[in-house]
Every structure is written in C-alpha cells, then in structure tokens.
Amino acid sequence: MLVAERQQNIVEMVNERKSIRVTELSRIFSVTEETIRRDLEKLEKEGKLSRSHGGAISVTSPDSLEVPYFEREIMNVNEKREIAVEAVKQVAEGDKLILDASTTAWYMAKSLPNISLTILTNSIKVAMELSSKHQITVISTGGILLSESLSFVGPLAEDSLDNYHVKKAFISCKGLHLDHGISESNEQQARMKKKMIQSADNVYLMIDHSKFGIQTFSHISNLGMINHIIADGKVDGRFIKQLKDKSLHLIKV
C-alpha cells in the first residue's frame, strides 16, 4: 500500500470511528507504531485529524463524515476491483438488481456484461457507467443529490425503493462489526442501504478487509439480514472463523 493511500485510509477510519489508537492502526496496516505516529503527525499538520494520547481523534462533525467520491476511488482499488468481478459472477441474465452508491458498486457496473438486466441505483456514477450498455435497463431513485458521493438520498429516494422488489442487492458499507452489524459514516446513506436490504431477496455485502471489526456512525442492519459477504483475500483469519461460527456465507476472492 502506498503511503498516501495508507494515510487517506487512516483519515477515513478516524472520521468514521471518531477516535482510534496507534496500536490498532499499526495492526491494521501492518506497519510499526512509529510509522503510524509519523503519519498522524503529518495528517495533524494538514488539519485532517488531531492527535491524542496514544492515538488520534476526528476533527469533523457527523454531518461531514462522508469521504468525497474522487478520494474513495483510489482507496483499496485492487481489492475493490477483485470484489466487483466476483460480484458480477453472482449475476444471471434477466436478474433485477440494486446497486448502491459505493465505489465497489461502480467497479461492478464497469464489469457487468451488456445483457438483459434491470438495475435500480441511487448512484449517478453507476447510472452513467451503465448508460452505454443498451440491454441493461437503469432506474434511478432520484432524490436529494449529495455532491460528495454523487448519489441520491432523502425521502424521495427512500420512498422510490418502496415501489420495487429485486432478486439481489449489492451494497457496501464503512464497517462490519460481528456484534453490532454493518454501519455507515453518513446517516442518509445508511437509511438508503437499509431500504435496499428490505427490497431484496438476497443481499450481497461487498467489503474489503479494512472494514472488518469496525463500527461507524450510523447503523444499517444486523448481520442476520446479509446473505453473502464478498471480501478480498486479506481478511484476518480470526474474522473468517467468527463469520463461519455465525453461519455467515463468505465469498473470499
């Protein structure tokens, strides 16, 4: 992982969790605690976080926790692409799907073949990516545009999901906690994803290794609502065992 990518991931994690310790960051990124301290010192000088005794704390308010789309596009890119390719394997011609506004969903949209599908999404990026695939019918939720994530949220977007029922929903999240379920940094996105889960027969959670063991600002659902978890090969073995103990289906790429 590049230094800049690690530091951006640190900022996102601090913003999501409000605070985090040096020891945990060292374990997550497999670098020394001294390396993490240098990262935190640099990020504090840039005004992206504030250092505390033994860790760092967020300098953002809950309403501004969402990381801009262009920044998320370059985070864990290889892992997201691998997850997206595996997700496409779960799609059959004629399926009716939901794709959320995550960057992994965008990579999935890029990888989908031009076959007969109906896709409901709140993502501008996903809709634009699919616009050239003429056999795919795209339905946009509409709603309030969040410029940070290029997605629609709010009452109109949520209500539109009540009008549809799909076979499969592919969503991502900012954190997966074995006891507290899945969560998002933005409350409006969390509400949308909760609606997406309710609108689907099968829910596929697309999540890279950095999100495991994390609980963020706004709860989406418990793990019992998730049918399949698609993750990259860097997931810690202890999480894999705990998922199996809970009879959760993990698809590791």
TrEMBL record:
Gene3D superfamilies: 3.40.50.1360, Winged helix-like DNA-binding domain superfamily/Winged helix DNA-binding domain. The keyword Protein biosynthesis does not apply. It comes from Lentibacillus kapialis. SUPFAM superfamilies: NagB/RpiA/CoA transferase-like (SSF100950), Winged helix' DNA-binding domain (SSF46785). It comes from the Bacteria. Residues 3-58 form the HTH deoR-type domain. It holds the Pfam family DeoRC. Keywords: DNA-binding, Transcription, Transcription regulation. One of its GO terms (molecular function) is DNA-binding transcription factor activity. This is HTH-type transcriptional regulator YulB. The keyword Magnesium does not apply.
